[in-house]
Amino acid sequence: MQYQSSRGQSGSVSAAQAIVKGIAPDGGLFLPDHIPQLTMEEIKSLAGLSYQGRAQYIMQQFLTDFSADDVRSCVEGAYNSRNFDHDKIAPLVQLEEGLYILELWHGPTSAFKDMALQILPHFLTVSLTKTGDDNEIVILVATSGDTGKAALEGFRDVPGTRILVFFPQKGVSQVQKLQMMTQEGNNVYVAAVEGNFDDAQNGVKNIFASDEAANALGQRNMKLSSANSINWGRLLPQIVYYISAYADLLAEGSLLPGQKINIVVPTGNFGNILAAYYAGRMGVPINKLICASNANNVLTDFIKTGIYNRNRSFEKTISPSMDILISSNLERLLYEVTNHDSEKVSGWMQELKDQGCYSIDEASRNMITDLFWADYSSDEETIARISRTWQQYSYLLDTHTAVAVDVYEKYHQVTGDNTMTIIASTASPFKFGASVARAVMDMPDKAGEFELLRKLEEKTGWEIPNGIRSLEEMVVRHNTITNVADMQDTMLTLLK
């Protein structure tokens, strides 16, 4: 299998080359030249395997230049009891008949990004041996909260790599910020950006496109790569857990082979729901993909109208990982629904860059609306949903998953559709403890963040994850603050 750019101006590359490069030289995103197909018999056979066995089987379809031993080594290095606190890795929890929560936060940083970022360093190490690249790889990341810590943890002290994470100074939760600022490791760097996530993301994209940065790093025998979901090595592991969830439902007899499901995903940069789309393309029978947004509802409007318009106010919400107005992975979906029309996709991306807005053609729009449904929830609705879900099911939602549950309820009310549904749960509720506590208990006056977490644990009986519990005593190691214009200089200074 070869990989090509969504913008059509770069030649085909292998999986290893796509993973090392991260982003295509023409600024596009790498995609496989075809989508492997799984028969229902193959999906049924996966039901008898562990998560690790399923991951190996699915990933091998895309990593054709990796040997079976290569893929097995990557999988075993990532999905094990040292890194994940649940033997199923990504367990399903039933809320009621026909409604399930897919818990994706049992990794070391208590967020779904661990599902990909625990294996990406292994992918990269193997890929470097295949490409013969002897440069030190600099992983450059913009984060809206969860990717940063998960990437730092995944790449900590990985030989031949350094990692630099930029995060919006006032756009992440207190727990997320502390997780990054206290990160240990001899090859890790963190800098806060005065601006929002889109500012940080644009700054990182500009660095990737900068010949000056490439030359400066090249003189130090360094080369940039990405751990954001623009890297195919980030997206591939996310496909696995949707196929695995379907296999789990088959294994427990809750689902008949071939029976369709809905998948609901709280969505910001569009990578997680795009992985569900690819799971469907591979063979998982999907009725609807439900895209759940917060007040930054640019994707809601796009799916409903075919017009993508980021020219709107940026809202700071209690679900900060979704506070995004430029959803990078949408470019991959556009490439797929236009039958790989890179010229058309490039035109839309140029319009987005120049005007902040583009409108897709009717045929592409119809393909998207046939499969996708979208809505959004306000902060007030999110808090109310956390409260109701706790009262009804004794199940504790974080603010992002609560957006997904609330949007699913809106979908159900509008459509009456009773198709079996899986809701992706993207973070532990303790990552956003202040908001969750406000929803389920009386708030003590002037309580600090960690006092609230302890009171939330006491109230609900849910345990604070170890990686969060220990934050309060950890030493802050990273205090760099920069503005968008100086991000490149900040990178070069930190890497000295």
Short description:
With 496 residues, this protein is of the alpha/beta class. The chain has helices at 15-21, 40-46, 51-62, 68-78, 114-117, 120-131, 146-155, 174-181, 197-208, 211-218, 232-251, 271-282, 298-305, 330-337, 342-355, 362-371, 379-393, 399-415, 433-440, 449-460, 466-469, 487-494; strands at 3-5, 30-32, 92-96, 99-103, 136-142, 161-168, 188-194, 222-226, 261-266, 286-293, 307-309, 357-359, 372-376, 421-425, 480-483. The chain has a domain at 92-107 and 233-431: Rossmann fold (3-Layer(aba) Sandwich), CATH 3.40.50.1100.
Key descriptive features of the protein:
496 residues; alpha/beta; 5-stranded parallel β-sheet; 22 helices; 46% helix; globular
The level 1 CATH classification of the domain at 92-107 and 233-431 is Alpha Beta
Q: Strands of the largest sheet, in order across it?
A: 3-4-14-9-10-13
* Global Rg: 21 Å
Please name the CATH topology of the domain at 92-107 and 233-431.
Answer: Rossmann fold
Number of helices: 22
Helix content: 40-55%
User: Strand fraction band?
Assistant: 15-25%
- The dominant shape is globular
Q: Which structural class matches the secondary elements?
A: alpha/beta
Stretches with pLDDT under 50, minimum 5 residues:
none
**Cα distance, first to last residue?**
38 Å
Number of strands: 15
Mean residue pLDDT: 96
What is the CATH-assigned architecture of the domain at 92-107 and 233-431?
3-Layer(aba) Sandwich
Please summarize the sheet with the most strands: 6 strands, mixed
